[in-house]
Every structure is written in C-alpha cells, then in structure tokens.
Amino acid sequence: SIRLNLMELRRLLTHPCPGIQFHWMRLRITRMWQQWRRGVEEMLQEGKISISRRKKNILLHFGTLAQGNRLDETAFKGGPLGELVQWSDLVATLYILGHDVTITTEINQLGKLMADNWQRPVQASLGRGPLPYDLIFTDIHGYKQFRNTLAEAVFTKSRCLFRILDSFGTEAEFNYRPYATGYHGNNRSNTCEWGCLHLRLQQFYTMFPHTPDNSFLGFVIERHNARDGVKQTIRIQNQSLVYAKREYMWEGKQAFIDVIREFFDVHATSELQAPRHMTQSPIPEYVHNHYVLLGDSYQALLQQSKIFVGLGFPYEGPAPLEAIAMGTVFINPRFHPPHSRSNTAFFAEKPTNREVTSQHPYAEDIGDPHVYTVDINNHTQLRATLLRVLTRQQEVPPFLPFEFTVAGMLERMNYYIENQDFCSNPIRSHVPRNAVQGFVGAEGKSCNDVCRSNGRFCENTRFNSVNNMDFLRARNVTCSTVVSEAGLVYPSFVRQGARKDCFFQQNDFLFNCASKLEKHNRLCACRTFKKEQVALCHEC
Ligand code: UDP
Description:
Strand content: 15-25%
Number of helices: 21
Structural class: alpha/beta
Mean pLDDT: 90
Distance between the termini: 22 Å
Shape: globular
Radius of gyration: 24 Å
Bound molecules: uridine-5'-diphosphate
C-alpha cells in the first residue's frame, strides 16, 4: 500500500555513521513532502496506481558515494547535486509506492549485507540462486562494486535485477563488450571506464529521456506554493540569475555576462574555490553573489528572477527545468558544432555518441517563450533576445512537463517496476504488441530518427517483430542476398543498383535505436508515446 508517513522514510535515511551522509537528501525530501503527498493523491484519485501490487524487496546502493566521491559533503559547497536529486526522488518514489527499501553507501556495508553465502569465493555460492532482491538500483561504480564483492555465479544470475542510474545514457556499441573494446576493429579500446557493462540497454536509467534505448528515470521538479509555508516572492523585472554553482564555470564568459548586465541586474549562487588573494576571480565585480543557497532561499531567488542564464556548463542539469517551472526564462547557450565524445573532453569517455546541441537539449525542445537557445558569442542576436524577454507584455507562464511532476515520476516508475522484466529468457517486452509498428528507414538514418519522423518512439525490446523476412516481404522488399549476423544496425538492407543485400540480427543484445551506418536502410520497431510522458506508450 501507499506510504505517506514521512517519519519512517526519515529513519531509513539516518545513517549509522557520524557525518552528514544523507543530510541533503533528507532536507530535499522533507521540503517536498507535501508535493509528494499531493502527487500520490492525484494518482490514486485517477486510479493510476493499482491496489493489487506485490510489495518488492529493493536494494539501493549508491556506488559513487561508496567510491569515495563524497557528493553528500560537497552538496553544500557547490558540488554537483543532480545525482543527489535523482537518488532522493528515487528513494521517495519507491518508499511511497510501498516497497521495502534498503540503502547502502559503503563497500563494507554491501559486503556485510551480501552475507557470507553471497560473497566470494565461488565455491561458497555454487548452486545458489540470484540475490534475494527483486530489484537493485545502483550506478556504474556501484555495479562494479557488486561485481567485485559477489561470487561470480551469484553475480551472473543477478545481473538481470540491476537498474543502473546513468545520467547521460549508454548506447549499444559501448555496452556490448566486443564492440566497446575494439574487437570489431572500430578502434574503441578505451571506452570501458563507463561502458562494457553488458546489460540490456533498458537497464540503464537516465536523467532525461535522451534516447528510448535506455529507460527514463528522471526526477521531480521542486515547486512550492503558499500552503507549503514557503513565502511567495515577487518577480523583479530586471533581475537575472546565473546558472553556476562553481567559480570555474565563469571562465571566459565575461563578455557574455557584460551583455546580460546591459539589461539585467546579475545575481549568482557561486562558491568561490581559490583563496581570493591568489587568483583573480572570473566572476565580475558587479555580480551579486549569494554563494550556494539552501533549497528554499535558492527557490525564492530563482522565482524573483526574470531570466536564468546558462554559461554552457553543467550539461543537462535539473536547474533549468526548475526555472521554467517558475516562469523564469532560461537563456540556453547553443553549441555549434554540437558537443560530443568526438570533440569535448567531458564526453570523451561517456558511453554515448549523442550530439549535445546546447547546454540543455531537453529545454531547447521546450523553446519559446520559456527557453531561448542562443549563440552566446553572437552579441547582436543575444541583445535582440534579451530585449524581447524584457519587453514582453505578458508574464511568461510557468511550465512543467508532466513527466517531471510527482504524479509523472510515480506513474512511470510504477510502470517500470511492475512491467519490466529482464530476467525472463527470451526477454519479454513490456510494451504491448499493438503499440508497436514496424518501419523501413531512409538510408543512413538511425531508428531514433526513423521513428520520430513517423511520430513515434523507437522500442528496442520489440525489434524481433522486424527482424524477419516476413516483415520485408510484406513491404515488397526482395532480398538478393541474406546474411544473419551480429551488427549494430541490423536488421537492415543495402541497395546496390537493382539488388538489395539484407542483414538480419543474430545477437539480440545489439538491438538498438541509436546506431546508423551509411547506405543501410534500418528496419525499426516504433511505439506510440504519451505527450509529456514519453517513456510510456499509449497502450502501456
Ligand atoms: N541548487 C541549490 N542551491 C544553489 C544552486 C542550485 O540547491 O545555490 C540546486 C538546484 O535547485 C537543483 C540542484 O542544485 O535542484 C542541481 O542543480 P544543477 O542543475 O546545477 O545540476 P548539477 O550540476 O548540480 O548536477
């Protein structure tokens, strides 16, 4: 049953060791508790959560913390918060949905929990089944910690239980070890830092719905109204807030900020890193810096501001959506050329070829009047945009896509928990057959592109439906040659004059939406999707 008593959850987040460990997460969950309650009540009223669900036993292991990357300690000093936001909201979601939740943040805790029988050496666990959990949420570090802790036989049997929090997403070619390690001659010998996990692609849970190859975990946008006791603030017409928690993010941005200042007072919440006497701060003197603020005060400052100004980094964080949800316009730096692993150090080791066209591609799609994506070095265009925002007659209304509300996150996660199953063999797709249609793509296009151009989303768990001769015959495609082998773009065909060489997929680990190859017309499985809840199909 649904759980609305916050006390129990607070107890769950009380770490036995001294220190601040879950402090930031506890503050966020407590602050947002009324929002969670309202969201779940909405779900219940609309009958969107079934009452006959089995309570699941779920383990959450926060591997990044266990690795010694103390996000919890830097949380109050300008360190990255996106991951803590996600973990907080994931814990809250699973708890509210009534599941049994266990949380670990240290390797020795994990070891103890796994108990002697589940640990190495292998002999101790031969003949054992998988771990006694229905699901295990962790991150990439955490997954490797499990691999090192568990007996191989147990680990192998348990792999299908894992769900990996993976902000930027993982594509097939970096997931499947023989491809990622260059076995196929693609010169990718260095990509196992984050890749090579060799899981089903939908076992990776992303921060934004980057690609339907992966599942979309997301998070909830924090919103307050008077009932929550957070004071309502009045918007200050010419106030801007710069999106930068750390001083280094300002480097090289002075000319851009100078233009912002022509129109707006410039505020910021940036932590200073170097002692001021040692280096010249890249934050201009005229900026009103509040340093990193805690939740309520930050939200109030954001709500007062007319615009929220991106500096190009961090990529794809929660903050721009919070701004848009308050009616604060987001100025989103455009990247030309797009940033990707081929040209940007930050993405170099990330297991994705995704091309990031601006600081926040999801916000970029939301667009006018909530978001303006601009070339920040083109000052003429920038001035025109700022003038347009400043002289707009009406207030920009708040906008919050359903998928980032409490109800949206609960609906999506409840769906995944009840329906995704990566342990069955062969894999049972959670997407109903009638939600899926097959398409023959244009030459050189990925199935992501093919499905989108047909008003649908690609569905990699349903590629079996297009991986056969009947599918081609029904579309009057006659193959001159037929090959069945493993390949990233298969099933597909290549036209050579009047002949067509057809390729079918032999390795279902490689079914994916993102890959493309010159000359190949891919065969794609595409599903319906709900507006503002793109992870789910209409029939799901
Ligand atoms: N935030 C905050 N205080 C501040 C600035 C930001 O609490 O002074 C919060 C913000 O509300 C958001 C979170 O930090 O929920 C993560 O923000 P960001 O988009 O910067 O992502 P990150 O780079 O930290 O992952």
